[in-house]
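Hi R.,

Here's the chain you asked about this morning:
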Amino acid sequence: MRNQPHYRIASVDHALHLATLLQQEGPLRVSDAAERLGVSPSTAHRLLAMLVYRGFAEQRPDRLYEAGDVLRPVAASQAPVALLRQVAIPHLHELVDRVGESVNLVVLAGTDARFVATAESPQVLRVGSRVGQTLPARLTSAGRAVLAALSTDQVAGLYEGAEGVGLERLHRELAVIRKRGFAVNDQRTESGLTALGTVLHDPDGLPVAGVAIAMPTVRFDRDRVPSWVSALKATVSEIERELYNAP
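And here is the predicted structure, written out as tokens:
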């Protein structure tokens, strides 16, 4: 039996209750959520907006809200996210020391890239932490790098029926990424942000996560891309060795 904590925070309780409803009972309207929680429609809308922001919910074209990728089961990995973060974070900070820019660790959640760890640059003008956020994987550098490590059939399966996705164009872009070994996000997700990403594999060669260097676009220099990519790949190799006890 679970006892209600004396320090229960109503807004947190409502958000968790709402996430549970979406996961267990299916799509809800704002009015449905308000009725179930016993709150005003405006409060329910704000709670749903926060769940969408954190990837716990999605709004469908018919304006109903449904469970987001965070609440959906994902394929099992040899490296659970908690272990992946634990192993990767020291290496992410070392990479920040090498390149002077922020570094993100991303895992694929359906067609989204979920940011699970960030090591921030010490510079005043920098890309801040994205931990907890989800963005379309086909737009982020790390997400694109992971997608490029999947087969064409796997990518097609992920985006089957997805609105607003030109699958042929995406396949062409991913082919380029496979060939050159890294992905670029040049202000696709946010104006003034440029990022370079590459993929982290398990011992069987399957993609596990993506690692990206993210910087203000004003500091992006094409001449430095080879050195940045080299540093990225060295970091990924270090994480893989420690994660899988590889020689």
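One quick note: The domain at 10-71 is CATH 1.10.10.10 (Arc Repressor Mutant, subunit A).

Cheers,
M.
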